[in-house]
Structures are given as structure tokens and as C-alpha cells.
Amino acid sequence: MKEASMMRLIAPLILLFSGTGPSSLLLVSSQQLFSNCDVSSYYSTLSASPTQTSRDEMHLLLKFTHRNVLPYTSDNNPDVWDGLLATDTDATGQLVHLIYGNKYVAATPYDSGSCDSWNREHLWPRSRGISDSGLDNTDLHHLRPADCNVNAARSNRYFGQCGTVGPLASCVSPAHVEAALDTERDAQTFLPPADKRGDVARAILYMDLRYDGSEPNTLDLVVSDCPESVPDGAGMGYLSQLLQWNLEDPPDEEERNRNGEVCDNWQGNRNPFIDYPELATVYFGNPSPLPQNGEGYACSGPTTPPPTNAPSPSLIITGVIDGPLTGGLPKAIELYATADIPDLSMYGVGFANNGDGTDGIEFTFPSQSASAGSFFTIASEVVGFEAYFGAPPDFVDGSVNINGNDAIELFFNGQVIDVFGDVNVDGGDWEYMDGWSYRRDTTNSSTLFNLDDWILSGINAIDSCASNPACVNAFPFHTYKNVIVSPTPPPSLRPSRQPSKDLTTAKPTPIPTKAISTVDKFICAKKQPLDATICAKGSLASRRCSTENSPDTCGKRGRVCWWHACPVWN
CA 450, CA 163: separation in Å to the nearest integer? Predict the structure, then answer.
């Protein structure tokens, strides 16, 4: 272990690309944050929304934004140890999380070769297509701290349940005395802890998408149900079980924070399967049933399901209203087609009442086509809706008997692809009782509800309204715009340094006073620092603007400043 191991936690340096290969490196301060790492900005250069982006285009995004490479081990410069000490420690920095033990242990000392502490685990084993000198060897998105002995017990086994290939009688559970109790292994497979299986799956899917063998000392990594059939020994399994784990163990806050840390401070790229778990089905298809009697998966076809002709999700939730008329009418939701839809019956909607969790699909669209740019409204009845909006809804179903504290789920082929609200929370910051909520322009579907993607009228905001056209706080009916930022050239592999600024003397950015917008009431500041940070509706924040899109100084619904997608100002 290096003598400077504690200093590395305080002021490490980062190795950056200054050319096109891992040998072209530049030392810069770790205080340099990579730009465009927040979710909304990172995917803004794509030609379509992330869930509708081709696999090839998403691969290129990950490749060209991978602006950071670390040495695996270095006596003088930051290396993979440093990265893991930043991404996998607790808030104190004193404890590190072990992926297979599913527990925290002392962060230092780490393993020095005697296997008496934790070491660095490659979720995609090095013996399965990763060389010692390729970028994939030090990619933090698939590296995790692990107990040295449990790491050895896992070896290079494929991820999956015991008995996938071979007799179930050979199963060992837990996989090691120091592993979590719900782990297991046999001669071919290793089963991680239940609440880390989704994390593992999304890391493996990322590696398949990120590495195609086009960069020095890398191979085309392929995750498959038949990994032994993959050329060059670069296969990893088992795809179907990983896809199932992705569904059963969705990303949590810890995994999302880690994804942001890797992008912000270490590599410059994100794992899109954490941001959009539904991409797994789009790019890899649906999981096959578990093999029976240890016979393994059928390997006569392609090693990876190619869903190239499978339709992608093209419908999003754009609005919800709990009306002011007698009985809380109209009760309705609005949806928008982001692309042509050949068959609407692939989609369904569910309503989670009073925070009691998902109710699954309660309304299924009829079998009909829809054109890109089409809006659809589903209401609980016709009379109240038509009285308030002046026209009937497109569809009527009694399941839309929602109140202002009920969440909404949109399904595609039985899988959730978009949500409004939290199905496990009874209202909260997103409540819309006697009011409405409407999606902000250019924001897209997500299985993780983000309040910043929505405009809320406020509770009782339309309580005195007799009709939408006459209402001061009118529901923005059919106004959502799915405008995609024009593609730009890939960012430079050498990020510019940000000189330090004296916040007490820096010249403030002029703040425009009139926005061309009828919906968005937030002030937009394109630069920082500001003499005073502007929050929602022009109120002042408690301290200066310092972090892009940070909400902490403006309250739960405020924003510190917008550096991207600002409205046009007069």
C-alpha cells in the first residue's frame, strides 16, 4: 500500500486523455469536473430520446465521452484504488462497500497482496476478453471493491443461478463464508446478493455496449446466454438472468450517485442502463426462461438476441389533472407519441392510489396506429371532461378515478417505461389536488420520477375555475414540445481546465428579466458566479450559485441555475 494513501483521499490528481489512446495522458487537478455529466445534459446530443436511440449511436456517446483513464496501479499517480475509494465509500470516507459481502469494512488498509483485506473485482473477468493494457481493464463502471477471498471464490464464473449448467447438487450457498447469505456458486455460475444483482447486470450490459474491439488492446465484449460461443473468449453470461435481475432490482440512489461520481470526477461517461433501465430490453430483447435440469440455454441461434426490428417505446406521460368541477372532475391524463406507433395496444396505464404501490396495467389502448406528435387523453368520464375542456377525451376508462395524490405508470409490453409520482408515496412534493402537473418541454420518459421534469400548478390552483380556457392557471393542454437538441461533434477528449475564481470579486452575469415562455417560470442564468443566486420565480437563494442544476439552495422545487436548455430571452 502506498504511503500517501490517505493524501489520495484529500487531493488526488486525475489522468486524462490528451490524445486518442491510453498512453496519451495529462495530469490535472481532481477538482476539475467533467462537463455535461448530469443526466439531462449528457444525452442531449443524441438524435432522439435515449430510449429511442440506436445502439450504435449510444455506443459512440459512451466512447467519445470516456475522457478519463486511470492506471490500474501506480506508486505516484491516482489509480483504480483511488477511484474505488471515491465511488464506493460511505459518507465519512472511512468505510468501503464490498459488492459480494454486501457490507462495509474499513477503507484502509486495502489488500497488499496477502489477501487479508479487500481488493478490486472486475465484474467482467479479465480472463474473459479484457487485457491488462486496455481501457476496459480500468473502467470504473465494472470495477467494485470485494473481499479478497470472496473475489477468489467467484473467480471468472458467469453470473447466474446454480444449476444453470450442470447439476444443482454441486451448489454452495453462501458462495463463501465471508459472502452475503443469499449468494451461491457452482462450477459455472456465481449468484451475487439479491439487492446487488441489478447493479451487476447493468455493469455487464454497459461493458457489452461500450466495448466493440475498435480501440487498442480491447475485444468485442458480448454478453450472451451462450458465452462459450463468443469469439476470442470475450463472452460473459448469462444474459437472460442479467436482464431479469435488471427488472427485479432497479437502480437505487446509491447506484445512481455512483454513476454520477464516475462521470463527474473520474471518466466523463455514464452508464445509460442505470439512467434508463428499460434500455436493456430495447438493446438486448426479453429474457429467455431459466434452463431446466442443468441443460443450459439453447445455443443454436445468435449469442445475443438482436432486437433490431423490435419496436421501441414511443409514448410518454405529459400531463395529469384533478379538476375543480363537482366530484373532482375532470380526472384525466395526457400522453404524447414521440414517434410513429404501429400498434397502441402494446401500451397500458396503471394508477397507484394513496401510495399503496403499483396496481399494474389497468387500462390497455386499443389496437390502432398513432403518428408522431399525436396527443392522447384518457379521462374517467366524458361529461365533466367535455364541460371543462370543450371537447371529449380520446379514451374513457373508470380506472382514471385519480385524486391529486395518486401516481401514474405507463407500460410498454408489460414493462414500466414512464412514471409520474412515486407509487409508494401518498402525494408529497408532486401532489396536484384540484390542480395539474405538466411535463417540461424536451424532457423524456423515465422509470425514476424526477420532480424537476414537471411543472406543478400547486394544490387548489384551479379550485375556482369553471373551464380551462377561462382559468388563469389553465392546464397547458397539448402544448408539450419534444424538441431534440441538434447533434454536435463529439466532445474533445481533453477537457479544458477551469481556472479558479474569487467568488467575492468575480463579475456577475447579467440576468435577463423577461422570458419568452408561458409555462416555465424559472429564472435562467447561463454563467456563474452570481452576486445572488436566483431560484424559482425570481426568489433569492441562501447562498451563491456554484453547482449546475443543484436544488439544495432553492428548496425542493427550486433550481440554482440552468446552464443548459435555457429559454430564449428578450
Answer: 40
Q: How far is CA 254 from CA 90, 195, 202, 566, in A?
A: 10, 12, 14, 29
Please tell me the total number of residues recorded for the chain in this structure.
Answer: 570
22 burial (CB, 10 Å; 0-12 / 13-18 / 19+) is: buried
Which segment of 64-68, 206-210, 465-469, 545-549 scores lowest on mean pLDDT?
545-549
Residue 397: burial class (beta carbons within 10 Å; 0-12, 13-18, 19+): middle
Report helix, strand or coil for 256.
helix
- CA 263 to chain centroid: 12
Closest CA to 328 of 282, 274, 362, 379: 379
Q: Kindly provide the b/e burial profile for residues 220-251, where b requires at least 16 CB atoms within 10 angstroms of the residue's own CB.
A: ebbbbbbbeebeeebbbbbbbbbbbbbbebeb
Question: Which residue's C-alpha cell is 428578450?
Answer: 570
With 0.70 as the threshold, say if the pTM is over it. Answer: no
Q: What is the pLDDT of residues 216-247, one digit of tens each?
A: 899 999 999 999 999 999 999 999 999 999 99
Ramachandran region, residue 52 (left: φ > 0; alpha: ψ -120 to 50; beta: rest): alpha
**Cα 533 from Cα 171, distance rounded (Å):** 59
C-beta of residue 193 within 8 angstroms of C-beta of residue 102: yes
Q: What are 105's strand-pairing partners?
A: 96
> Is the CB of residue 348 less than 8 Å from the CB of residue 364?
yes
Cα-based angle 363, 364, 365 (whole degrees, multiple of 5): 120
Nearest to 388 by CA among 402, 399, 377: 377
**Cα gap 333→356, rounded to integer Å:** 20
What is the distance in angstroms between the CA of the first residue and the CA of the last residue of the chain?
Answer: 59
CA distance 96 to 90: 6
Asked if 49 contacts 61 with a C-beta cutoff of 8 angstroms, the reply is no
- CA 297 to CA 165: how far, in whole Å? 8
CB 127 within 8 A of CB 121: no
> CA-to-CA distance for 33 and 30, rounded, in angstroms?
7
Question: Which residues lie across from 349 on neighbouring strands?
Answer: 363, 410
326 SS3 class: helix
Cα separation, 454 vs 68, in Å, equals 33
Sheet holding 454-456, edge to edge: 395-396, 375-379, 329-337, 315-325, 435-439, 454-456
- Can you say whether the dihedral through the CA atoms of 335, 375, 276, 281 is positive or negative? positive
Amino acid, res. 137: N
496-550 pLDDT per residue, tens: 323 333 323 333 333 333 333 322 323 333 333 333 334 333 333 333 333 434 3
